[in-house]
């Protein structure tokens, strides 16, 4: 088990190394010169050169990458030994000259909003998705089933940005029962936090619970036709026990897997949701950074998101092995 | 005698009371708070709350004028404009109660020479002040001295020695490289996060990208300051809101929005909901901003003047302004110098018509010019920025040019870094037309024409802000003449230069001056339009009881 | 002794997209306590479907079940799911065909037996576990203490089948239905399992229905045999009658076509021609007629009418469904079939 | 009569799942040192319990698997390590019939295509064209030649198995390896297929390796029978000898475990019930692999693997043959 | 099993599994409806120029006269300027005809989504086949590549990489503007789409590789080429078709999302994602403008999903819901 985790972590780090190398390499062939961006309106060639030096763009790519990797594990300084020395503690994911801050602190700054979205929405969609899926499966073929699955099918075809705007139009502009979305720290005001997040939660949860409802229903129905469920009936178990102990237990594994991966992807930034609702999370940070070609931030966020994806993969595999006795971790 | 407007305190606003918190909502964080590094309109205006410069603009009862700030007068020059001497106000204090000295003022200028570390900011000090020893700034050159700035023995006067006569020098000293910073308090690039206050407020906390909180500076004395009020207890700047969100929350005017104002958000989308509606009359501030939206035609690549004239004629001012929001969002322009700068403004024609009265495209004329051209360049690369309505404006231009028979390559650039990219000379993707804008650095032709059209600012690889890359011998001769002229005469020459450049050389098309419509909450008073840099100013804001 | 299980006129149909599948047609049989009935027939002849009906497991599915099934005097087909549920496990239990899929892969073998035991016995988990280990021991699992905590996939096929049996027997059911318990197993393991079943029956007097298509298994383990073809009983009687003196052409075909360990190995096997019938369009009349060599002997009746399941002789317990008259049948058996056996 | 096929020391080890990142993979000793030969026109039966390596042996002989050790000689030629090109002409003569009639036919091909595949692959055009030959083959295996354009799903298991046989016969092979050809079939159909194969063997003089787990079926088909246990042959003898006088305890147990159909004969035979299952080929018992289930096992069985030796008319690998 | 019944039907021509699936599909009502909707959109996209002719304007033409001259963000007239000449109203600020932009937007969106699906499918099939068939080190390397590709935060990375690729593609001589942007989008979408198809193909190949009919062909001395293309590939079409059908809506969504986030086609070329993006500031003043592309996108994605479900059910009736 421990060996397995170590092995997976090793592979995960390998994947992240490749991701970071690719991201790094790609900006090497970027059309706009990053130094030029940092130089500002009144730029002189000398200043450009100095910025280029500060950004270390005058170094070979391999040196830049090497220092970057070192920064992640051991921290680093930019412009070491000069007057303008900048410290960037481990884990240092780069330094944003447009924000004049280490990327790590930017990420940490934005993380709470993203965490808020991810956890709020995931609780909602799990509750709604699972329960409607279970009810549908148990009442298969009834009007209730058809109705909820019809909605789920429709909802799964909707776009976050479209639903988000519609909901915002209804709840903020017309009914005015919700404030304009944004982010307030829950430590400042829990109610403001919840009210401002509500639309993001609902929108994400609406679309995702549709998917989970369908997934749950399909999984349950598939398990219901398994021979072992028939065995359970033949033992004389009650319907409720069969459904909870056998059917749900059998159907839960793929759901947990998908959930883990979804959550992992979401933690890396709910890009579209944050964009639509203007929530200052990782997704917004990264889209802004892309728009401004703030390369250290882009690199940092891509890597950070990939970290969540990779971690989610490992966690999912571990959970999977815990849930499915057939899977032996070696 | 000293004019009344030069001495503090500034006249009180009627109905204003002290106390409360004023919230300023902005879309973006200030680029820099370090005065030496800042060059952005809204910030220049805002940081006056805690930064005093040698001279500054004062706006009282809607009238803006240049007045001494740290200085006690607007400077005197005796050697033909080559050196300027300013008297300094006595008894000025920093936020810790220590005295503001002439040496601090000199140091404030000196540190701006270390622009490798303190990037951004204006380059005027470096451009104009005499520096025979090639001083590089205190970080690089700890023992060096800047010859061109000299304090009198008593420390009550400061003298700037220039390399050329600059008649408008007192305007230049409004910028942040002419503020006082005690050497001991200089934290280099970290100064950006916590400038040391000399104004009525000081920084309590600053969370980059999120929030800046200002509280009162008890050592500031209202009697020494003819410019600044100090009504609220606190200013809180909340950053990073979306344009639409700001528009909506200010219109809805609920909760905190009541005491909020946005100084960087022009109401565009929802303008029809508020403009001319009595309910918003008192809190909607509509004014002509100094921003001129214009198109530079690259004379390096579009060499034939007839082609450039064809381009000028093809432009449909109407669709371009519609894309920007219609006549409520802008006022047609023929030049970049606004009519309000009376000494420099010229009323001339573009494509032989008065564009203000007749903004439609002149397709027939465009085709005629194109037919006349010997070097028929019909494929044009239009550079524009992916920000706000700019892509739409570009599309309007594309359409107009196509109608005149041009082929247009649309070159969209990311939001930031646009200007530095399109000013690059040479290269295979150099734009033929640059969609851009300019706001004067001071309200004079000299604050516009030098920066935009003087070939001397350019290098072989960088056009700087001369996006049309104009370098015409006859015009350069006029520039040389202007350098040597007194302010009024200089303004006239600069006006001539612009007219020639647009009318004859056809290197430039100004489309409109932006109309700003900004809002404040209903419980906020004292918000005013400041014509110094053409901004909405919170310097006199107060919370209504 | 009265019959513990009594099935009367059982019909089971499945409506499908292709048509109505008449899986079981008018089936009647009974089993006494302590006796074993063999249910024999080729694939698709309705054996499993019948056994599921006895446990009432078709309830809630699309199957249409008619007729009467009495288990210990309770009528299954008329009872509600919750009533029948109480009988399952205790009065009647089942060993399923495929032990790999019939055991829940997510629970340990021990847990699954514990669950079965706790349904009908109000005992603590620890007690139930003790019982489960006992059961595993009884079915011959070595080190039951340890193996109880294994998951099904950690067991071999034979062990799984034994675990299934342990589970089915955990509440000492009065009726045990074993659906092809050994088909997937090797002969040596099959022998072990059959031995186990025999032993259990001897100890507890359980009534057993053994479903198989292996006549050898039938001969060795059952008392009575019900031979099914296309959902119908074609022959029903004691093992001795059905296997040694078969009276139906299908029975003859079956017996002569299977390779045996005795007799002349070089003799050609007497195969039944044709293929098993479709259950949707069952051949008219006698369902076996398209494959029957004696169709011409009988004439058009084979296609026209369904023969009755009748005693070979008055009062005999040996029932046959064939148009051939008794005399001809005996002749054919004696002259043509017996020599091949 | 000389051997058409001769197998010496044939061994196949599979590498199973790996343990850990740097760990070694398990070695599955699926087939371990087989020696036997088949004369032309003969049918050799190969019996044994599940997992004992029967299919692996079949696939090794047809060179579907690469042997780990040992040699295979076909008509005196060593074909153990021939390249696929060199093997091509030999493949035609060495064909295989598979166990599962459902997975052995490509569901997307028509019967015609399936039976014509051998011609296509070997690039042979038979006299009268491929189609005619395919239809002939269909007739030979007792199918309607007009079913040429149908798909496998339209046939029953027995019919599918006939299609598989027709495919194996297409190139007129000399040797056919039939891997449990009737195991998946219903009892009533099984006899049809056995009869068909027997007829074909006679008509075409085919040599058969007939793999099965059912001793009774093998008895009706093969003239000589080899019994395998856990990757090794434990006994080979001609049919009558083996069935009437088994020498290896395992053969004996196997024979006694087959249920007797005749109700009168039930109980007449002495039954030997083995305990436990076939051990894991990853970790086979030392010495004689059968010793863990053998009632005759003694110390020597654990120490020494018995050799295949001639005992009477049989060849047996046992320290204590009957 | 009704196999026996069919085998006794007279008639020599058999029905292939594909034909049977097609027959089942034809009976499926939801397939018919969703198929019609898709066909309708496709037709609209194909016949877009016809509407230009009918409406006497182009999707790019500015019509400032349809806008309030003072507030050009407000089209004159009700519901965003819906009228006989402008069926869906006009675009704020430009007065461009929304209906034409919608129709031409269908063109762009569908072209990009379908092309990306095609590219992703081809790459996915090739890599999946190689990986599944050859196994071993090749498989390990390719599987890792898939894993790494999937570890990329796709939307974000797509946004970041677009300008870079644009530069590269332009360097290869593609025309600037949308001439480059569209191929870049197709490339980017395909880049993150192929692993899904490759994974499925790989899984199928691995299971097919073990099937006895492949062994049978090998026993006949078939080349690898024959095994892959004659034996395995025909059995892959069904799962591939299902995956592709279910992938198209994902691609449409992704394309729109990318454009919505600003890495999509460049104005004036119209696209549904771009229309939605452009409508955002006006959603409260002019909801029609938001609703039209949003609803169309919804309808198209829903239809493709339904059709995908139907195709899956038809090809594999046992797996149905
Ligand atoms: N749920 C169902 N829906 C439709 N038909 C069914 C269903 N279950 C069984 N059948 C059909 O009923 C018939 C009898 O099936 P059953 O499973 O009882 O056969 P069996 O005798 O047990 O065969 P085997 O030996 O293969 O297990 C078959 O034709 C089968 O296809
Ligand atoms: N490709 C393979 N990789 C790893 N192990 C294999 C492989 N093929 C077979 N084995 C193992 O080799 C052993 C012998 O397998 P084989 O298929 O030859 O048995 P068999 O006698 O044909 O059994 P059955 O009667 O079940 O068909 C088994 O333990 C099996 O798990
Ligand atoms: Mg069955
Ligand atoms: Mg096998
Ligand atoms: Ni059929």
Automatic annotation (TrEMBL), chain A:
<protein>
    <submittedName>
        <fullName>Peptide/nickel transport system permease protein</fullName>
    </submittedName>
</protein>
<dbReference type="InterPro" id="IPR035906">
    <property type="entry name" value="MetI-like_sf"/>
</dbReference>
<feature type="transmembrane region" description="Helical">
    <location>
        <begin position="198"/>
        <end position="215"/>
    </location>
</feature>
<feature type="transmembrane region" description="Helical">
    <location>
        <begin position="297"/>
        <end position="320"/>
    </location>
</feature>
<dbReference type="InterPro" id="IPR045621">
    <property type="entry name" value="BPD_transp_1_N"/>
</dbReference>
<keyword id="KW-1003">Cell membrane</keyword>
<feature type="transmembrane region" description="Helical">
    <location>
        <begin position="115"/>
        <end position="138"/>
    </location>
</feature>
<keyword id="KW-0472">Membrane</keyword>
<dbReference type="GO" id="GO:0005886">
    <property type="term" value="C:plasma membrane"/>
</dbReference>
<dbReference type="GO" id="GO:0055085">
    <property type="term" value="P:transmembrane transport"/>
</dbReference>
<keyword id="KW-0813">Transport</keyword>
<feature type="transmembrane region" description="Helical">
    <location>
        <begin position="150"/>
        <end position="171"/>
    </location>
</feature>
From TrEMBL, chain C:
<keyword id="KW-0472">Membrane</keyword>
<dbReference type="GO" id="GO:0005524">
    <property type="term" value="F:ATP binding"/>
</dbReference>
<dbReference type="InterPro" id="IPR003593">
    <property type="entry name" value="AAA+_ATPase"/>
</dbReference>
<protein>
    <submittedName>
        <fullName>Peptide/nickel transport system ATP-binding protein</fullName>
    </submittedName>
</protein>
<comment type="similarity">
    <text>Belongs to the ABC transporter superfamily.</text>
</comment>
<keyword id="KW-0547">Nucleotide-binding</keyword>
<dbReference type="Pfam" id="PF08352">
    <property type="entry name" value="oligo_HPY"/>
</dbReference>
<keyword id="KW-1003">Cell membrane</keyword>
<dbReference type="Pfam" id="PF00005">
    <property type="entry name" value="ABC_tran"/>
</dbReference>
<keyword id="KW-0067">ATP-binding</keyword>
<dbReference type="GO" id="GO:0016887">
    <property type="term" value="F:ATP hydrolysis activity"/>
</dbReference>
<keyword id="KW-0813">Transport</keyword>
UniProtKB/TrEMBL annotation, chain D:
<feature type="domain" description="ABC transporter">
    <location>
        <begin position="5"/>
        <end position="255"/>
    </location>
</feature>
<keyword id="KW-0813">Transport</keyword>
<comment type="similarity">
    <text>Belongs to the ABC transporter superfamily.</text>
</comment>
<keyword id="KW-0547">Nucleotide-binding</keyword>
<protein>
    <submittedName>
        <fullName>Peptide/nickel transport system ATP-binding protein</fullName>
    </submittedName>
</protein>
<dbReference type="InterPro" id="IPR003593">
    <property type="entry name" value="AAA+_ATPase"/>
</dbReference>
<dbReference type="GO" id="GO:0016887">
    <property type="term" value="F:ATP hydrolysis activity"/>
</dbReference>
<dbReference type="GO" id="GO:0055085">
    <property type="term" value="P:transmembrane transport"/>
</dbReference>
<dbReference type="InterPro" id="IPR017871">
    <property type="entry name" value="ABC_transporter-like_CS"/>
</dbReference>
<dbReference type="Pfam" id="PF08352">
    <property type="entry name" value="oligo_HPY"/>
</dbReference>
<dbReference type="InterPro" id="IPR003439">
    <property type="entry name" value="ABC_transporter-like_ATP-bd"/>
</dbReference>
<dbReference type="GO" id="GO:0005524">
    <property type="term" value="F:ATP binding"/>
</dbReference>
From TrEMBL, chain E:
<feature type="transmembrane region" description="Helical">
    <location>
        <begin position="110"/>
        <end position="136"/>
    </location>
</feature>
<keyword id="KW-0472">Membrane</keyword>
<keyword id="KW-1003">Cell membrane</keyword>
<protein>
    <submittedName>
        <fullName>Peptide/nickel transport system permease protein</fullName>
    </submittedName>
</protein>
<comment type="similarity">
    <text>Belongs to the binding-protein-dependent transport system permease family.</text>
</comment>
<feature type="transmembrane region" description="Helical">
    <location>
        <begin position="148"/>
        <end position="169"/>
    </location>
</feature>
<keyword id="KW-1133">Transmembrane helix</keyword>
<dbReference type="GO" id="GO:0005886">
    <property type="term" value="C:plasma membrane"/>
</dbReference>
<dbReference type="GO" id="GO:0055085">
    <property type="term" value="P:transmembrane transport"/>
</dbReference>
<dbReference type="InterPro" id="IPR035906">
    <property type="entry name" value="MetI-like_sf"/>
</dbReference>
<keyword id="KW-0813">Transport</keyword>
<feature type="transmembrane region" description="Helical">
    <location>
        <begin position="286"/>
        <end position="308"/>
    </location>
</feature>
